[in-house]
Protein 1
Amino acid sequence: MMVSLKREREDEVDDDDNEETGKLSSKVRRGRVVEDKRSRHCPYLDTINRSVLDFDFEKLCSISLSHINVYACLICGKYFQGRGLKSHAYTHSVQFTHHVFLNLNTLKFYCLPDNYEIIDSSLEDITYVLKPTFTKQHIAGLDKQGKLYRAYDGTTYLPGIVGLNNIKANDYANVVLQAFCNVPPLRNFFLEEENYKGIRRPPGDIMFLLVQRFGELMRKLWNPRNFKAHVSPHEMLQAVVLCSKKNFQITKQGDAVDFMTWFLNALHGALGGTKKKPSILTKVFQGSMRIFTKKLPHPDLMPEEKEALLVTEEYQEQMSESTFLFLTLDLPTAPLYKDEKEQLIIPQVPLFNILAKFNGNTEKEYKTYKENFLKRFQLTKLPPYLVFCIKRFTKNNFFVEKNPTIVNFPITNVDLREYLTEEAQVSEKNTTYDLVANIVHDGKPTEGAYRIHVLHHGTGKWYEMQDLQVIDILPQMITLSEAYIQIWKRQERDVTNNHAAV
């Protein structure tokens, strides 16, 4: 009696060790003995419904909510645990006569309730959608062609230029993820799982989940064999909620710059990066600058007291070196007056005006709780990809205010040489950048929405993505938007050859 109970219990879960060794084991099925480990063709393959298959969501059983031994029913698309006798998948197969299941971990197919493995090459497209893989040759050619691919649902799409579901209020995260997925060196690193599979993390460290989920999302966005022309970032965002300790949520609108700042630093740390040890993120985005800081006397002091303090060592200008992953550009204060038609004037400012912050001469006052400082900045090293954050929002104790100033910028050939120190101007060969991604915030500070403009490197065309909507856009339309985050790519051609050609 004890033996039969034990046998029945084993039937409820998978014996994956035996699966791997391929040993035949006999199990009791409805009073008869069958060889359930023998692989064979299945007569029910034509019942598979690829249009309902969606592997973007969390891999857990729809009944028990367990993550262990989860199987996808390929007829209705639902997830169930186990395949043994009395398991949820087994019960589902008997109750609804759905016979073909996929183990979401081992990527093996099974026919239930007979419980044998199915080996059939016609199922490869399903495993590829669940877990896309990329060869080095495939990755090397991604930016050299602009071929449209047809999804299983009949829609055509460009890999990489793919809409992301807005589950409720996660467009602030979607645009940042889409921007990073279109930065070629970052994309190439995450498309190949071998690049980060072997990174050692401390026991119990959950942050590496960010790396895994971002890699999975990257591969889905660039998959040329998708069943549908959009992707849900559900698993990626769940990792964000968990790893950020709920600072960033799916159901509550967030700030794209805040999210990007956290995501860059969290991903850098999860990849084993430190201040001294680089990661792919610091290799792609990190530059350096000099910061000149001068302490100011308290404004309430008498003039002679101020003069006396200014000659002391404490009030002399100090220089420090600092690295950066992005540069914050300050907008001039928006006018409060209305024009003759009683409409607010939307001011415009050239990009180079707000870049003057980094020319080494422009001083800006910074206030802390007790002290005031004058600071000026000058760049010493430019990264391969330069990120600008245009400071549109000012926050105080009562409300968030948005500056609607339009920044006028060229799409290509932005030369940053004049913002470098003299030594850096000699050492830096290429200082000219082209825009590759432009994140826009529309509407009110707390109720607005995000969209992104992305350059497709293979075709040279620009596309606008807002959640699931993807349309092509003229480059001159990009400059009319309220740009919030921009990613610029350094031109790779040799400056000397370039001048020679001119």
Note: DSSP finds 17 helices and 27 strands in the chain.
Protein 2
Amino acid sequence: MLSQYKPGMDGEEFKLRAKEVIDYMVHYRDTAFKRPVIALNILKSKVADLKKFIPLTVPTHGQDSFKDVLKDLDEFIVPRLLAWDHPHFFGYFPAGNTYPTILADMLSDIYNNIGFSWSSGPALTELEMIMMDWWGQALHLPRHFLFQTHGGVGGGVIQCSASDAVFMTIVSARQRALEFLKRKYPGKNEFDLVTKLVGYISREAHSCQQKGANLASCRIRVLTPNKMNKMTGETLERAIKEDLHNGLVPFFVGATVGTTGTTAYDNLWEIGAVCKRNPLIWLHVDAAYAGSAFVCEEFQHLCGGLDYADSVNVNANKWMLVCYDCSGHWVRDRYMYTHGIVITPVYLSNEIPGIIDYRHWKVQLSRRFRSLKLYFLFRVIGVKMIQEYIRNHVRLAKYFEDLILTDKRFTVTSEVHLGLVCTRLVGDDILTEHLVAFVNALGKIHVTPTRDKGQYVMRLCITYEFATKEHVLWRWTHIQECDRGYKFAKTVTELAAFKKIVLYKEK
């Protein structure tokens, strides 16, 4: 009996529809400035209302035309997105989205390689190894993190996110420490030994470090940074001595270069020296955002002390023009990194001695051909253009800071290192909270808050790929107008939005 299966689209129709989608994608990017960062009516609803427009029952037959699907996408779904690539979006951190890397993503889909091992896609594994070395060279990472180092045991892998990199590092550090404890206490149960382990992060570290420790069932101490939001060697050493005295075993330190809140960077020289005196400690450096700046000579001081690190992660999909996902994770010793977590069932036993099998480097077994994005990035765009892109963002952040300093109602709360400016209104926190809420409620720009030294702060990050001084000046003028609240509410809707925010906060 012949199969009744027929694909929803053949090759000829795919070519036609792909052209339509590409045209749509280019139009979407070219007209971003004409749309709000997020539609005002979506913000007003405060609920997930998409189910009003999309049936809750799955279609049995795919009878809708592709044009209808695309039309509904544009009418119902896209307006309910937060436009990260908008000229007036400066919340969170940048999200790379260049055309060459998008094309590479499309190609990876058509090749459809699931590269969990070398034999499942030889070029996928080998290109990733080469790209991790290219990327490491561009960032001026210590040579012990590269595959090509003569006689070295380091190397890198593309993870889905910094969270994956941190979690895998904590698991590897835990396994290394447990092996030491098993030799020291041969009769002890492994689960009891885990309770002896303790790691250390700063209060300013990203939440993924605490989350990774929780997932690995490991105790983490959160240390108080200094006035510059930096974790210091002195603070770390004092905590380690206390825990050693109490019979605990320090096994992990998570340092940060470019914190999410304020882009502060921990003192790696001091922290590294402390870790070196405690050789069981695995020092990991989270440089998810700021690490991309290492491509520029003037920012390489930020990675001073990285020689001490056992691992480091940097997100190309943040500040390096690569579309999501692409998080680089380099380790000093790839054998130590994977030792203790290698599991090889019969159906995966076709490994070749001496060949990298990336399935041992991450949680997921299946892997996408993400190294193509780096290959296209470096060959089409190149390091020089990446440097200019980053330098432009830094210049604009300093310009933003200068604008803020001319208004006595505002204060800049932390040093502007890279592309992020943190500011707040002079006075009680409630003033800045109202301002952030009102700015986002209008939907013309988007900002995100944080807490800095206990105070509520507004983060203003340069994120738009083609940002200019005109964009920054318009945003700042809008923020100033929003601070005047009632006086500058131009419509009844805006005034109602402001009143609603104030009433909600007062409750």
Note: The longest strand covers residues 249-256.
